[in-house]
Amino acid sequence: MNDSSWGAPQGAGYWGTPEMRAAPAGPAHDVHGAQQTRPMPIVPDVPDAGRDADREPQSRDERNGDAARISGPLFRDEMPQEPMSTPPPSPPRKKRAGRDLRAAIGVGVGLGAVIGVSLFIVKAVFIGVIVIAVVVGLWELTSRLQERKGIKAPLIPLAVGGAAMVVAGYARGPEGAWVAMALTALAVLVWRMTEPPEGYLKDVTAGVFAAFYVPFLATFVALLLTADDGSWRVLTFLVLTVVSDTGAYAVGWRFGKHKLAPRISPGKTREGLLGAVGFAMVAGALCMEFLIDGGAWWQGLLLGLAVAASATLGDLGESMIKRDLGIKDMGTLLPGHGGIMDRLDSLLPTAPVVWLLLVLFVGSG
Questions:
Q1: 238, 214, 220: which is closest to 173 by C-alpha?
Q2: Residue 264 has pLDDT above 70, yes or no
Q3: Higher-confidence residue: 44 or 111?
Q4: Opening angle at CA 339, ends 233 and 129, nearest 5
Q5: Is 32 helix (H, G, I), strand (E, B) or coil?
Q6: What is the pLDDT of residues 148-191, one digit of tens each?
Q7: What average pLDDT does the structure give for the chain?
Q8: Would you say 244 and 346 are in contact if contact means Cβ atoms under 8 Å apart?
Q9: 146 by DSSP, 3-state: which?
Q10: 31, 16 in Cβ contact below 8 A?
Q11: Alpha helical stretches, state H, the chain
Q12: Model confidence pLDDT, tens digit, residues 60-106
């Protein structure tokens, strides 16, 4: 309500009927001259012209007193009130990303620089980068399992066996990776025997799962590197996965309305999945045509489609794990991204898919 509705009267002739308000102001029609003989609500009335004419003009103090009485609480209750003006609706807020985009972009550029330098200068250095990522990922996964579920998957045999898997895959191919995987599982079973038997089954089950989920799937990145154009194959794998994630994020953030899997990951939409497929197929056609020896653009379309599917499933898979654990991120090592496992979620299941399709399309050499 406006302030003027609660203030003093605005002048002579302000109260009363329209005819009264139209009357000229003056001594004969001054509403402030009306005298009160007993306390009662002040009701505007037509002033007595003769009585007001015989009355002495009011002093300034009397006029102020009358004005104060007229504006008292009894009269305010009878005053016509103006409708309260409603504030204009605030403009709708723009959608905002859930993470610190500056930090995420900075970390992403830094990781990309490390990968690019190690990938195209010395392949052995890139194998070391894979091993570091595997060990840190295993540490995050086993730590969250113990914190949230009380599951004690043995980290030491997992870390040693995981590093051995990646190196064996690069040096001996798929056979070396499988042998290292079997030995790692056996080491987990034996290592856990040094502790009390309570929880043995769930601990070793989680340990074997961790060995397969992180280092074994990461070994396929090392297998990609063994080809003559291995650096370009790894780059194609990374580019397609990143482009798929970026397309899903951009299209889903802008146009997403229909949830893809609300019980697993409420933020993912069907529109985002279509964005991932479209972006990845275009990038796949370009990569197969210009980066891979003997590749064709139509093969890149199929490759991009497969990458979009596997990356989305991998993301949903880790979302299921995190939802079961009751956490948002696996770690806090990478600002704007979470932990290492939060970046490997779509890469790990995509690596064997890309390796297999490239072997079928252009061979393993």
A1: 220
A2: yes
A3: 111
A4: 40
A5: helix
A6: 999 999 999 999 999 999 999 999 999 999 999 999 999 999 99
A7: 81
A8: yes
A9: helix
A10: yes
A11: 18-22, 49-54, 60-70, 73-76, 101-121, 123-149, 155-192, 200-211, 217-225, 230-255, 270-290, 297-325, 340-344, 347-362
A12: 445 555 544 444 444 444 455 555 555 556 555 545 545 666 776 77
- In whole angstroms, what is the distance from residue 12 CA to residue 81 CA? 19
CA 245, CA 148: separation in Å to the nearest integer? Answer: 28
Average the pLDDT over each of 45-59, 222-236, 280-294 and give the range with the smallest value. 45-59
The rounded percent of the chain whose pLDDT value lies above 90 is 62
CA 172, 351, 277: angle at the middle one, nearest 5? 160
Check whether 137 has a pLDDT greater than 50. Answer: yes
pLDDT of residue 33: 41
Q: Coil, helix or strand for 265?
A: strand
Both tokens of 320, joined, read: 């299921």
Q: Which long-range contacts (CB under 8 A, 24 or more apart) does 178-183 make?
A: 180/219, 181/211, 181/212, 181/215, 181/216
pLDDT at res. 131: 97
State the amino acid at position 133 in one-letter form.
A
Q: How many CA atoms within 13 Å lie on the side-chain side of 184?
A: 33
106's CB contacts (< 8 A; 6+ apart) are: 335, 336
HSE-up of residue 161 (Cα within 13 Å, Cβ side): 27
Residue among 353, 330, 354, 356 at smallest CA distance from 343: 330
pLDDT value for 113: 84
Q: What angle do CA 161, 164, 170 make, to 5 degrees?
A: 145
In three state form, how does the secondary structure of 110-128 look? HHHHHHHHHHHHCHHHHHH
Q: What gap in Å lies between CA 296 and CA 15, rounded to an integer?
A: 90
CA 101/CA 107 separation, integer angstroms: 10
What pLDDT was estimated at residue 91? 55
Do 330 and 338 touch, CB atoms closer than 8 A? yes
Question: For residue 275, what are the contacts with CB-CB under 8 A and spacing of at least 6?
Answer: 247, 248, 249, 250, 251, 252, 255
User: What does the block give as tokens for 6?
Assistant: 């609660």
